[in-house]
């Protein structure tokens, strides 16, 4: 009894640690809704330990025994709901309510049955198996295959397998004839001990998923230019380089460099706040005018880059010309309705080429376009396309 009670205390303390951990995630992490869901799930489930500890200390055995099931299973349902939502598995909320109500109703029906019978053991453990199995399916069916996600999937799968095993062991070795007898049985000691291990393992796996997401979110933010809202030079290179490595040997694509004409004059005449508006407007036009599979970045003060996969030089030059036209059609009231113009340099990229070499060729073409009078497109190794 003392050992089982001690394990109940340990399980309760562990659950509170995870409540605190997921509460921090909910306040500080990128997955606030999921973090809050996990924190509430562990908080509710931890009440089961309190109910079980009160069974031998009060005369309300049935009340606290059923309360232990309700709180533990309620926590499992909330956990499954949070996991399925976090991993994008669309399960109507009514399914979890139905699962919870049917599980509680079943517990009422089987309460007076001896604890070691097949009917009681299977009926008691099945609802927990279903919630854990559903959670594991949600992780597996997602397209996320990081080490953290696969670890969580493994822990959830082990957790799902644990409950049929508990049913088998309860029948094989006995689990006490009553709720009070359960706490005095060896089965309770083993069940609580293994349960604590699984709680820790699954909780740590969930924390690992959130830590990875926080790191990924920080990396993603470091790749974004805060003014324009598009990739910076680092983010552009991180995304384009792997695409070049996977590209077809004869048609890796094309790189377009764009530079806003007379940007210093805009800053000098109208102020840096207007210059910021020009940068933001230019970035928006690039995003809207570039192909959907292109990567767009601000790589310098007023210099931008566009990578377009699997296009030849003529199509890339035509795309740059269309972007140039879209840019020149934008009028800014802050600049006395002056239009923005830009110069473009285009370079083809072939298999085995590097981003650095393509940048050098496109930069040379861009310099030629600016030297020729600006507001035009120039193809590396080819002729310029004058503004229309």
Automatic annotation (TrEMBL):
It comes from Ciceribacter thiooxidans. CDD domains: GGDEF. Keywords: Membrane, Nucleotidyltransferase, Transferase, Transmembrane, Transmembrane helix. SUPFAM superfamilies: Nucleotide cyclase (SSF55073). Its EC number is 2.7.7.65. SMART domains: GGDEF. This is diguanylate cyclase. The chain crosses the membrane at residues 6-27, 34-55, 61-79, 91-110, 122-140, 152-175, 187-211. The keyword Cell membrane does not apply. Residues 251-382 form the GGDEF domain. InterPro entries: Diguanylate_Cyclase, GGDEF_dom, Nucleotide_cyclase, Rev_trsase/Diguanyl_cyclase. It holds the Pfam family GGDEF. PANTHER family: DIGUANYLATE CYCLASE VDCA (PTHR45138:SF2), REGULATORY COMPONENTS OF SENSORY TRANSDUCTION SYSTEM (PTHR45138). The keyword Transmembrane helix applies. It is an enzyme of class 2 (transferase). GO terms for molecular function: diguanylate cyclase activity.
């Amino acid at each position: 009894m003392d050992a089982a009670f001690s394990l109940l205390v340990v399980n309760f303390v562990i659950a509170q640690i995870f409540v605190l951990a997921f509460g921090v995630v909910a306040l500080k992490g990128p997955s606030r809704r999921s973090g809050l869901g996990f924190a509430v799930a562990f908080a509710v489930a931890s009440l089961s330990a309190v109910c079980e500890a009160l069974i031998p200390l009060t005369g309300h055995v049935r009340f606290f025994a059923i309360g232990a099931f309700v709180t533990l299973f309620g926590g499992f349902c909330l956990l499954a709901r949070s996991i399925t939502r976090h991993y994008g598995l669309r399960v109507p909320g009514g399914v979890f309510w139905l699962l919870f109500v049917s599980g509680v109703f079943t517990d009422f029906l089987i309460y007076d049955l001896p604890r070691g019978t097949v009917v009681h053991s299977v009926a008691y453990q099945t609802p927990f198996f279903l919630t854990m199995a559903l959670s594991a399916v949600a992780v597996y069916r997602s397209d996320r295959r990081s080490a953290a996600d696969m670890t969580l999937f493994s822990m959830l799968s082990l957790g799902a397998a644990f409950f049929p095993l508990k049913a088998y062991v309860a029948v094989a070795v006995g689990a006490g004839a009553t709720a009070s007898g359960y706490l005095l049985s060896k089965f309770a000691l083993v069940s609580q001990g293994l349960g604590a291990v699984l709680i820790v393992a699954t909780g740590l796996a969930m924390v690992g998923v959130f830590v990875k997401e926080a790191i990924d979110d920080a990396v993603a933010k470091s790749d974004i230019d805060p003014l324009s809202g598009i990739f910076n030079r680092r983010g552009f290179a991180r995304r384009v380089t792997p695409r070049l490595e996977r590209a077809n040997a004869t048609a890796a694509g094309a790189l377009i460099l764009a530079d806003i004409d007379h940007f210093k004059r805009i800053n000098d005449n109208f102020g840096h706040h207007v210059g910021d508006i020009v940068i933001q407007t230019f970035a928006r036009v690039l995003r809207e005018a570039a192909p959907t599979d292109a990567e767009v970045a601000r790589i310098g003060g007023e210099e931008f880059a566009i990578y377009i996969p699997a296009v030849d030089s003529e199509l890339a030059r035509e795309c740059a010309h269309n972007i140039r036209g879209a840019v020149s059609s934008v009028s800014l009231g802050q600049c006395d309705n002056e239009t923005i113009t830009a110069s473009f340099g285009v370079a083809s990229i072939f298999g085995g080429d590097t981003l650095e070499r393509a940048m050098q060729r496109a930069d040379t073409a861009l310099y030629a376009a600016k030297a020729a009078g600006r507001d035009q497109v120039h193809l590396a190794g080819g002729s310029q396309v004058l503004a229309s």
